Amino acid sequence: MKVENIKIVNFKAIENLEVNPQGKNVYVVGKNGAGKTSFIGGVFGILTGQDLPVEPLRQGEEKGEIEVDLGEIIVRATYTAENQKMNLQVSTPNGAKFSSPRKMLNEKLGVVDFNIAEFLALAPAKKSEQIQRICGLDFADVDSRYTAAFNERTYINRKVKELEAQSEGLDVADVKPVDTAAVHESLRVARVQNSAIEGVQTRIETRKNRRTSIDTEIEKLTKQIQVLKDEKRELDGMDKQAATFLKQNKVTDVQSLEKQLAEASEINVRVQTVEANKRKLAEFDSAKEEQGKLNASLADIANEKAAMIKAAKMPVEGMTFSESGSLLLNGLPFESAQINTASQIIAGLQICSALHKDVKIARFDGSLLDNDNLKVVEDWAEKAGVQLFIEIVSRDAQGLQVDISE
Protein backbone atom coordinates (compact mmCIF):
# COMPACT_ATOMS: atom_id res chain seq x y z
CA MET A 1 0.00 0.00 0.00
CA LYS A 2 1.00 3.61 -0.66
CA VAL A 3 -0.53 6.99 0.11
CA GLU A 4 -3.28 7.85 -2.37
CA ASN A 5 -4.66 11.02 -0.81
CA ILE A 6 -3.90 13.38 2.10
CA LYS A 7 -6.20 15.89 3.76
CA ILE A 8 -4.96 18.18 6.54
CA VAL A 9 -7.16 20.75 8.25
CA ASN A 10 -5.97 23.09 11.00
CA PHE A 11 -2.83 21.19 11.91
CA LYS A 12 -0.06 23.36 13.36
CA ALA A 13 0.69 26.05 10.71
CA ILE A 14 -1.40 24.33 8.01
CA GLU A 15 -4.93 25.68 7.57
CA ASN A 16 -6.33 23.51 4.80
CA LEU A 17 -4.35 21.30 2.47
CA GLU A 18 -5.26 18.38 0.23
CA VAL A 19 -2.72 16.40 -1.77
CA ASN A 20 -3.56 13.59 -4.17
CA PRO A 21 -0.26 11.74 -4.83
CA GLN A 22 -1.86 8.45 -6.01
CA GLY A 23 1.15 6.50 -4.77
CA LYS A 24 3.73 8.81 -6.41
CA ASN A 25 6.57 10.64 -4.68
CA VAL A 26 5.66 13.74 -2.67
CA TYR A 27 8.00 16.76 -2.63
CA VAL A 28 7.44 19.20 0.24
CA VAL A 29 9.21 22.47 -0.59
CA GLY A 30 9.47 25.68 1.38
CA LYS A 31 11.52 28.00 3.54
CA ASN A 32 12.37 27.12 7.12
CA GLY A 33 9.20 27.46 9.20
CA ALA A 34 6.88 27.16 6.21
CA GLY A 35 5.28 23.95 7.54
CA LYS A 36 7.26 21.26 5.71
CA THR A 37 7.98 19.29 8.87
CA SER A 38 4.38 19.79 10.09
CA PHE A 39 3.01 18.32 6.87
CA ILE A 40 5.25 15.24 6.73
CA GLY A 41 5.20 14.85 10.52
CA GLY A 42 1.39 14.87 10.52
CA VAL A 43 1.17 12.17 7.84
CA PHE A 44 3.71 9.85 9.42
CA GLY A 45 2.63 10.77 12.96
CA ILE A 46 -0.93 9.45 12.69
CA LEU A 47 0.30 6.31 10.88
CA THR A 48 2.88 5.46 13.55
CA GLY A 49 1.43 7.15 16.63
CA GLN A 50 4.83 8.70 17.34
CA ASP A 51 6.21 12.25 17.60
CA LEU A 52 2.77 13.87 17.44
CA PRO A 53 2.59 17.39 18.94
CA VAL A 54 0.88 17.88 22.29
CA GLU A 55 -1.20 20.71 20.78
CA PRO A 56 -1.79 19.86 17.12
CA LEU A 57 -4.70 22.28 16.55
CA ARG A 58 -3.94 25.45 14.59
CA GLN A 59 -4.13 28.47 16.88
CA GLY A 60 -7.59 30.11 17.00
CA GLU A 61 -9.45 27.14 15.47
CA GLU A 62 -12.07 24.87 17.08
CA LYS A 63 -11.26 21.57 15.45
CA GLY A 64 -8.97 19.91 12.97
CA GLU A 65 -8.22 16.64 11.26
CA ILE A 66 -5.65 14.64 9.29
CA GLU A 67 -6.76 11.97 6.85
CA VAL A 68 -4.43 9.63 4.99
CA ASP A 69 -5.98 7.39 2.33
CA LEU A 70 -3.88 4.24 1.76
CA GLY A 71 -6.26 2.72 -0.75
CA GLU A 72 -7.19 -0.38 1.20
CA ILE A 73 -7.71 1.58 4.41
CA ILE A 74 -8.29 5.18 5.40
CA VAL A 75 -6.60 6.57 8.50
CA ARG A 76 -8.21 9.60 10.10
CA ALA A 77 -7.34 11.56 13.25
CA THR A 78 -9.51 14.34 14.68
CA TYR A 79 -8.84 16.80 17.50
CA THR A 80 -10.59 19.78 19.05
CA ALA A 81 -9.77 22.86 21.09
CA GLU A 82 -11.27 21.14 24.17
CA ASN A 83 -9.38 17.88 23.68
CA GLN A 84 -6.28 18.10 21.53
CA LYS A 85 -5.52 14.42 21.93
CA MET A 86 -5.95 12.86 18.52
CA ASN A 87 -8.92 10.55 18.13
CA LEU A 88 -7.80 7.83 15.69
CA GLN A 89 -10.10 6.00 13.32
CA VAL A 90 -9.22 3.39 10.69
CA SER A 91 -11.81 2.26 8.18
CA THR A 92 -12.16 0.59 4.80
CA PRO A 93 -13.27 2.57 1.72
CA ASN A 94 -16.80 1.19 2.19
CA GLY A 95 -16.97 2.60 5.75
CA ALA A 96 -16.24 -0.48 7.90
CA LYS A 97 -14.30 0.58 10.99
CA PHE A 98 -11.62 -1.30 12.94
CA SER A 99 -12.21 -1.62 16.68
CA SER A 100 -8.49 -1.41 17.58
CA PRO A 101 -7.10 1.08 15.04
CA ARG A 102 -3.60 1.50 16.51
CA LYS A 103 -3.03 -2.27 16.84
CA MET A 104 -4.31 -2.77 13.31
CA LEU A 105 -1.93 -0.09 11.95
CA ASN A 106 1.05 -1.53 13.78
CA GLU A 107 0.35 -4.92 12.23
CA LYS A 108 -0.16 -3.51 8.74
CA LEU A 109 2.54 -0.85 8.56
CA GLY A 110 5.61 -2.32 10.21
CA VAL A 111 8.14 0.53 10.54
CA VAL A 112 7.32 3.20 7.97
CA ASP A 113 9.07 6.06 9.76
CA PHE A 114 12.64 4.83 10.13
CA ASN A 115 14.53 8.06 10.81
CA ILE A 116 17.28 8.00 8.19
CA ALA A 117 18.92 11.24 9.34
CA GLU A 118 19.17 10.04 12.95
CA PHE A 119 20.53 6.66 11.82
CA LEU A 120 23.21 8.28 9.64
CA ALA A 121 24.22 10.55 12.54
CA LEU A 122 24.79 7.62 14.89
CA ALA A 123 28.27 6.57 15.95
CA PRO A 124 29.57 3.51 14.04
CA ALA A 125 28.99 1.17 17.00
CA LYS A 126 25.37 2.36 17.41
CA LYS A 127 24.70 1.93 13.66
CA SER A 128 26.00 -1.62 13.90
CA GLU A 129 23.84 -2.38 16.95
CA GLN A 130 20.71 -1.13 15.17
CA ILE A 131 21.38 -3.24 12.06
CA GLN A 132 22.07 -6.27 14.27
CA ARG A 133 18.65 -5.81 15.89
CA ILE A 134 16.99 -5.46 12.48
CA CYS A 135 18.71 -8.65 11.26
CA GLY A 136 17.97 -10.51 14.48
CA LEU A 137 21.67 -10.92 15.22
CA ASP A 138 22.91 -11.19 18.78
CA PHE A 139 26.69 -11.16 19.09
CA ALA A 140 26.66 -10.83 22.89
CA ASP A 141 27.65 -14.45 23.54
CA VAL A 142 30.31 -14.76 20.83
CA ASP A 143 31.72 -11.30 21.62
CA SER A 144 31.87 -12.19 25.33
CA ARG A 145 33.63 -15.48 24.61
CA TYR A 146 35.97 -13.77 22.15
CA THR A 147 36.86 -11.07 24.69
CA ALA A 148 37.50 -13.67 27.40
CA ALA A 149 39.68 -15.77 25.08
CA PHE A 150 41.47 -12.66 23.79
CA ASN A 151 42.28 -11.47 27.33
CA GLU A 152 43.46 -14.95 28.30
CA ARG A 153 45.61 -15.14 25.17
CA THR A 154 47.10 -11.70 25.94
CA TYR A 155 48.14 -13.04 29.35
CA ILE A 156 49.54 -16.30 27.94
CA ASN A 157 51.36 -14.42 25.12
CA ARG A 158 53.13 -12.32 27.73
CA LYS A 159 53.93 -15.44 29.77
CA VAL A 160 55.26 -17.27 26.68
CA LYS A 161 57.50 -14.30 25.87
CA GLU A 162 58.87 -14.17 29.43
CA LEU A 163 59.44 -17.93 29.57
CA GLU A 164 61.07 -17.92 26.15
CA ALA A 165 63.55 -15.26 27.30
CA GLN A 166 64.23 -17.18 30.51
CA SER A 167 64.71 -20.46 28.63
CA GLU A 168 67.46 -19.29 26.26
CA GLY A 169 70.82 -21.06 26.89
CA LEU A 170 69.63 -23.05 29.90
CA ASP A 171 71.84 -26.05 30.93
CA VAL A 172 69.63 -29.15 30.79
CA ALA A 173 72.30 -31.90 30.38
CA ASP A 174 71.72 -34.93 32.60
CA VAL A 175 74.01 -34.88 35.69
CA LYS A 176 73.87 -37.44 38.49
CA PRO A 177 73.98 -36.10 42.06
CA VAL A 178 76.92 -37.09 44.30
CA ASP A 179 76.47 -38.62 47.78
CA THR A 180 78.27 -35.96 49.81
CA ALA A 181 77.54 -37.82 53.05
CA ALA A 182 79.88 -40.65 51.99
CA VAL A 183 82.58 -38.16 51.07
CA HIS A 184 82.10 -36.36 54.41
CA GLU A 185 82.49 -39.70 56.26
CA SER A 186 85.63 -40.60 54.31
CA LEU A 187 87.04 -37.17 55.09
CA ARG A 188 86.25 -37.57 58.80
CA VAL A 189 87.90 -41.01 58.99
CA ALA A 190 90.95 -39.74 57.08
CA ARG A 191 91.33 -36.78 59.42
CA VAL A 192 91.12 -39.02 62.53
CA GLN A 193 93.61 -41.48 61.07
CA ASN A 194 96.01 -38.77 59.94
CA SER A 195 95.80 -37.16 63.37
CA ALA A 196 96.74 -40.47 65.00
CA ILE A 197 99.65 -40.94 62.61
CA GLU A 198 100.90 -37.41 63.24
CA GLY A 199 100.71 -38.10 66.98
CA VAL A 200 102.73 -41.29 66.62
CA GLN A 201 105.33 -39.57 64.45
CA THR A 202 105.62 -36.75 66.98
CA ARG A 203 106.10 -39.17 69.83
CA ILE A 204 108.78 -41.11 67.83
CA GLU A 205 110.69 -37.90 67.35
CA THR A 206 110.40 -37.10 71.04
CA ARG A 207 111.72 -40.51 72.01
CA LYS A 208 114.59 -40.21 69.54
CA ASN A 209 115.62 -36.98 71.16
CA ARG A 210 115.31 -38.58 74.52
CA ARG A 211 117.54 -41.50 73.60
CA THR A 212 120.20 -39.12 72.39
CA SER A 213 120.04 -37.32 75.69
CA ILE A 214 120.33 -40.62 77.55
CA ASP A 215 123.32 -41.75 75.52
CA THR A 216 125.06 -38.49 76.35
CA GLU A 217 124.42 -38.85 80.02
CA ILE A 218 125.22 -42.61 80.32
CA GLU A 219 128.76 -41.97 81.22
CA LYS A 220 127.78 -39.44 83.82
CA LEU A 221 124.95 -41.52 85.21
CA THR A 222 126.58 -44.86 85.79
CA LYS A 223 124.41 -45.56 88.73
CA GLN A 224 121.29 -45.12 86.73
CA ILE A 225 122.36 -47.30 83.77
CA GLN A 226 120.18 -50.22 84.67
CA VAL A 227 117.16 -48.03 85.15
CA LEU A 228 117.86 -46.30 81.92
CA LYS A 229 118.38 -49.62 80.14
CA ASP A 230 115.01 -50.80 81.36
CA GLU A 231 113.46 -47.57 80.22
CA LYS A 232 115.24 -48.00 76.88
CA ARG A 233 113.91 -51.51 76.46
CA GLU A 234 110.46 -50.23 77.20
CA LEU A 235 110.90 -47.46 74.67
CA ASP A 236 112.19 -49.99 72.13
CA GLY A 237 109.07 -52.07 72.68
CA MET A 238 106.93 -49.03 72.13
CA ASP A 239 108.92 -48.20 69.01
CA LYS A 240 108.34 -51.70 67.73
CA GLN A 241 104.62 -51.31 68.27
CA ALA A 242 104.73 -47.92 66.59
CA ALA A 243 106.64 -49.38 63.63
CA THR A 244 104.06 -52.09 63.31
CA PHE A 245 101.29 -49.43 63.41
CA LEU A 246 103.03 -47.32 60.78
CA LYS A 247 103.57 -50.35 58.60
CA GLN A 248 99.87 -51.20 58.81
CA ASN A 249 98.59 -47.61 58.29
CA LYS A 250 99.36 -45.12 55.52
CA VAL A 251 98.77 -41.34 55.43
CA THR A 252 95.55 -40.45 53.54
CA ASP A 253 95.52 -37.59 50.98
CA VAL A 254 93.10 -35.20 52.77
CA GLN A 255 93.43 -32.49 50.09
CA SER A 256 92.18 -34.93 47.48
CA LEU A 257 89.10 -35.70 49.59
CA GLU A 258 88.47 -32.01 50.23
CA LYS A 259 88.70 -31.37 46.47
CA GLN A 260 86.31 -34.27 45.85
CA LEU A 261 83.85 -32.79 48.36
CA ALA A 262 84.00 -29.35 46.71
CA GLU A 263 83.46 -30.90 43.27
CA ALA A 264 80.52 -32.91 44.60
CA SER A 265 78.89 -29.75 45.96
CA GLU A 266 79.33 -28.01 42.60
CA ILE A 267 77.83 -31.00 40.78
CA ASN A 268 74.83 -31.08 43.11
CA VAL A 269 74.24 -27.34 42.60
CA ARG A 270 74.31 -27.94 38.85
CA VAL A 271 71.88 -30.87 39.25
CA GLN A 272 69.45 -28.55 41.05
CA THR A 273 69.90 -25.90 38.34
CA VAL A 274 69.30 -28.42 35.55
CA GLU A 275 66.13 -29.71 37.26
CA ALA A 276 64.87 -26.12 37.63
CA ASN A 277 65.71 -25.47 33.97
CA LYS A 278 63.80 -28.56 32.88
CA ARG A 279 60.77 -27.42 34.87
CA LYS A 280 61.03 -23.95 33.28
CA LEU A 281 61.19 -25.46 29.78
CA ALA A 282 58.23 -27.71 30.57
CA GLU A 283 56.29 -24.63 31.74
CA PHE A 284 57.30 -22.84 28.52
CA ASP A 285 56.10 -25.77 26.37
CA SER A 286 52.82 -25.90 28.31
CA ALA A 287 52.30 -22.15 27.86
CA LYS A 288 52.96 -22.42 24.11
CA GLU A 289 50.47 -25.28 23.87
CA GLU A 290 47.87 -23.17 25.72
CA GLN A 291 48.70 -20.27 23.41
CA GLY A 292 47.97 -22.46 20.40
CA LYS A 293 44.66 -23.61 21.85
CA LEU A 294 43.59 -20.01 22.55
CA ASN A 295 44.56 -18.92 19.03
CA ALA A 296 42.45 -21.77 17.64
CA SER A 297 39.58 -20.83 19.97
CA LEU A 298 39.71 -17.19 18.83
CA ALA A 299 39.70 -18.32 15.20
CA ASP A 300 36.70 -20.62 15.84
CA ILE A 301 34.74 -17.82 17.55
CA ALA A 302 35.60 -15.39 14.74
CA ASN A 303 34.47 -17.98 12.17
CA GLU A 304 31.26 -18.56 14.12
CA LYS A 305 30.54 -14.82 14.09
CA ALA A 306 31.41 -14.59 10.39
CA ALA A 307 28.99 -17.46 9.68
CA MET A 308 26.25 -15.66 11.61
CA ILE A 309 26.86 -12.50 9.58
CA LYS A 310 26.95 -14.44 6.32
CA ALA A 311 23.67 -16.19 7.13
CA ALA A 312 21.93 -12.96 8.19
CA LYS A 313 19.56 -11.32 5.76
CA MET A 314 21.04 -7.84 5.56
CA PRO A 315 18.61 -5.01 4.74
CA VAL A 316 21.09 -3.38 2.33
CA GLU A 317 22.85 -5.12 -0.53
CA GLY A 318 26.63 -4.96 0.00
CA MET A 319 26.26 -4.18 3.71
CA THR A 320 28.10 -6.34 6.21
CA PHE A 321 30.07 -6.11 9.44
CA SER A 322 33.83 -5.76 9.85
CA GLU A 323 35.81 -7.98 12.23
CA SER A 324 35.53 -5.23 14.84
CA GLY A 325 31.74 -5.17 14.41
CA SER A 326 31.36 -1.83 12.60
CA LEU A 327 29.19 -1.49 9.50
CA LEU A 328 30.67 -1.75 6.02
CA LEU A 329 29.02 -0.90 2.71
CA ASN A 330 30.69 -2.41 -0.34
CA GLY A 331 33.84 -2.87 1.71
CA LEU A 332 33.99 0.74 2.99
CA PRO A 333 33.17 1.98 6.52
CA PHE A 334 29.57 3.19 6.62
CA GLU A 335 30.54 6.80 7.40
CA SER A 336 29.96 10.12 5.67
CA ALA A 337 33.68 10.53 4.97
CA GLN A 338 33.72 7.22 3.06
CA ILE A 339 30.31 6.99 1.33
CA ASN A 340 28.54 9.74 -0.62
CA THR A 341 25.30 11.21 0.68
CA ALA A 342 23.09 9.62 -1.99
CA SER A 343 24.41 6.15 -1.20
CA GLN A 344 23.90 6.78 2.52
CA ILE A 345 20.31 7.89 2.00
CA ILE A 346 19.58 4.94 -0.31
CA ALA A 347 21.03 2.62 2.32
CA GLY A 348 18.79 4.25 4.93
CA LEU A 349 15.78 3.83 2.64
CA GLN A 350 16.69 0.18 2.07
CA ILE A 351 16.79 -0.34 5.83
CA CYS A 352 13.40 1.38 6.08
CA SER A 353 12.08 -0.81 3.25
CA ALA A 354 13.23 -3.94 5.07
CA LEU A 355 11.11 -2.87 8.05
CA HIS A 356 7.99 -2.25 5.97
CA LYS A 357 5.03 -4.58 6.00
CA ASP A 358 2.07 -3.67 3.77
CA VAL A 359 2.71 0.08 3.52
CA LYS A 360 5.72 1.12 1.38
CA ILE A 361 6.46 4.76 2.22
CA ALA A 362 9.54 6.57 3.53
CA ARG A 363 10.70 10.11 4.15
CA PHE A 364 14.04 11.93 4.11
CA ASP A 365 15.56 15.40 3.84
CA GLY A 366 16.37 15.98 0.18
CA SER A 367 18.07 19.32 0.85
CA LEU A 368 21.36 17.47 1.29
CA LEU A 369 21.33 16.23 -2.34
CA ASP A 370 21.94 17.92 -5.64
CA ASN A 371 19.64 17.13 -8.57
CA ASP A 372 21.81 14.31 -9.93
CA ASN A 373 22.01 12.50 -6.60
CA LEU A 374 18.33 13.11 -5.94
CA LYS A 375 17.63 11.41 -9.27
CA VAL A 376 19.73 8.42 -8.15
CA VAL A 377 17.60 8.09 -5.01
CA GLU A 378 14.34 8.49 -6.97
CA ASP A 379 15.38 5.78 -9.44
CA TRP A 380 16.15 3.41 -6.60
CA ALA A 381 12.77 4.10 -4.93
CA GLU A 382 10.91 3.47 -8.20
CA LYS A 383 12.62 0.08 -8.65
CA ALA A 384 12.06 -0.81 -4.98
CA GLY A 385 8.39 0.23 -5.10
CA VAL A 386 8.77 2.74 -2.27
CA GLN A 387 6.83 6.01 -2.18
CA LEU A 388 9.03 8.90 -1.04
CA PHE A 389 8.13 11.97 1.00
CA ILE A 390 11.00 14.37 0.35
CA GLU A 391 11.52 17.55 2.37
CA ILE A 392 13.41 20.26 0.47
CA VAL A 393 14.44 23.67 1.81
CA SER A 394 14.03 26.49 -0.74
CA ARG A 395 14.76 30.13 -0.02
CA ASP A 396 12.72 31.22 -3.06
CA ALA A 397 9.56 29.27 -2.28
CA GLN A 398 6.46 31.21 -1.35
CA GLY A 399 4.85 29.45 1.65
CA LEU A 400 4.45 25.69 1.63
CA GLN A 401 4.57 23.95 -1.74
CA VAL A 402 3.65 20.28 -2.15
CA ASP A 403 4.45 18.73 -5.52
CA ILE A 404 3.81 15.26 -6.90
CA SER A 405 6.32 13.48 -9.14
CA GLU A 406 5.20 12.99 -12.72
Describe, in plain words, how this protein is organized in 3D.
- It is built from 10 helices and 12 strands.
- By secondary structure, the protein is an alpha+beta fold.
- Among the domains are: about 5-110 and about 355-405, Rossmann fold; about 180-270.
- Helix 5 (about 140-165) runs antiparallel to helix 8 (about 255-310) and helix 6 (about 180-220) packs antiparallel against helix 7.
Give a short summary of the structure:
With 406 residues, the chain is an alpha+beta fold. Helices cover 54% and strands 15% of the residues. Among the domains are: 5-112 and 356-404, Rossmann fold; 180-269.
What's the rounded overall pLDDT mean? 86
Gyration radius, in Å: 53 Å
Number of beta-strand segments: 12
State the end-to-end distance. 19 Å
The parts where pLDDT drops under 50 for at least 5 residues are none
**CATH architecture heading of the domain at 5-112 and 356-404:** 3-Layer(aba) Sandwich
- Count of helix runs: 10
**What name does the CATH topology of the domain at 5-112 and 356-404 carry?**
Rossmann fold
Largest sheet: 5 strands, antiparallel
The structural class is: alpha+beta
